[in-house]
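Give me the 3D structure for Substrate-binding region of ABC-type glycine betaine transport system.
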Amino acid sequence: MYPRRERTQKKKTSRPPIGRGFRLMRAWARLLLVACAALLLAAGCGAPSQVSARSQDDRIDIAYTGWPEDAAIAGLTQALLEDLGYRVELHRVSGQRRAIDGVASGRYDVFHDVWVPVHEELLSRAGEGRDNPLDGRLDEVDLLNSWLVGVTRSGLAAPSYMEINRVGEIEGSGAERALVLAPGASALGPPPRRALSRWGLEVEEYGSAAAMLEEVDRLYRRREPFVFLAWAPHWMNREYEFSYLEDPEYALGSLTLPAEIRIITRRGMEERQPLAYALIDTIVLTQSQVEDVQLAIRRAGSPEAGARRWLAANQDLRSAWLRNAGMQAAGS
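Predicted structure for Substrate-binding region of ABC-type glycine betaine transport system (332 residues):
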């Protein structure tokens, strides 16, 4: 298991001594800030941060890929940060590499969709030769906890009406098509073409999950035999009845590798924006909750609108996250 948060040793820089009075003043200011936010929350105010964020740098730039789990957590984070008075901008980027590089360069403040260990190579500049491949980026970003309870699930799936449970049963099932995502269109590894061809399947690669699932929906409604790439968390697990096919010989390789979905923030965010950083580090969701948010986003048409609808129906959780973030920021 990976630790909750990993960082490299920060370099010490010389600076003039800070007086004891100044340090006390800064500590009291931080406590007062959090106390005001807590009072507003207790009063049921919709925007407690009219006080809380204005004493800090109040702009937050969030990179997201458009993948449903990423859109869900990015939308929730945007809505909650705006409730704390921050000005938040979502930036849709094409793939994890651009998002990670954007945070490392300081263009973006946070990215929520780093699948560990799948994306270790993207986090490492030097790649091989390091004891910990994450070290290559940890001098530029902070790697936070996983916001998902547990780990992801992924693999090849078949509709339940096909009544198969293992990849070895694909042959003879009548399935001739395997619907997968093209390399770069997925947070997962590349599709194992050799194994899929061995089972007599014609591999069809799609440039987006939306395009693939449109064909999945069409074939599913016609009850045709086929297999497809599935993963969780994702709303497809609610919409369709299917089985993740067991792969006892690991013919699918890294496609079935479970992962933690971790967060990266730009280095220095914890010091400059402690309340925002604490909130980002506080939000944790179960698979079921993630998929609920995803479905709300599908109905609303945008990450923020869907997230706000979900938060309106889950006020206790919203209040707990804001309260815990305030307490964490006060103690940092």
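The radius of gyration is 22 Å. Let me know if you want a second pass.
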